[in-house]
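Collaborator request, handled under Task 6.
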Amino acid sequence: APHILAEVNTEIYNYLQRKQKTKKTLNEGMDIAICIIDKTQNKLSYAGSKIDLYTVNTHHELKMAESYKIELGKQQHLTNITEQIFLLNEINGFYITTDGFKDQLKYRSNKTKFGFNGFENFIKDNINMPFSEQKNNIQNIYSQLIVSEKQIDDILVFGFKI
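Structure tokens returned to the collaborator:
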């Protein structure tokens, strides 16, 4: 997974450098998460750039696999990209989200409703439910958010089990 991030970064960086010549300032980049599932070895490999991976193990413990903290395309070469490996038989669920949902939970009046760890609490409260029910619950939370606040960023939440 880290080598894929490095390759994508190089392509984005080169593209942005070419575009930079035609525009005065271009402040762009890409957030991405890559998961490679190897069923023969029963593992999942993860590497991400500003998109974290949350896991819930068979003991219902929530852990966050931190991503690389720089958007792809911001620098020519990436250093210290970590690949994190998870054994599939030890994990009950995986969750990936853009920072938009977590930021929306912390935004203005939502802060009092959901708190700083709103997304993490959502996972803990919903992990035993089928994903179809989790989807409905997260859509309900989102509907509550946009009643009094506008959407401030892109929002993507992706949950899966293997």
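The cover message to the collaborator said: "The mean pLDDT is 83. The beta strands are 32-38, 43-49, 53-57, 62-65, 84-87, 91-97, 157-160. Please let us know whether this matches your experimental observations."
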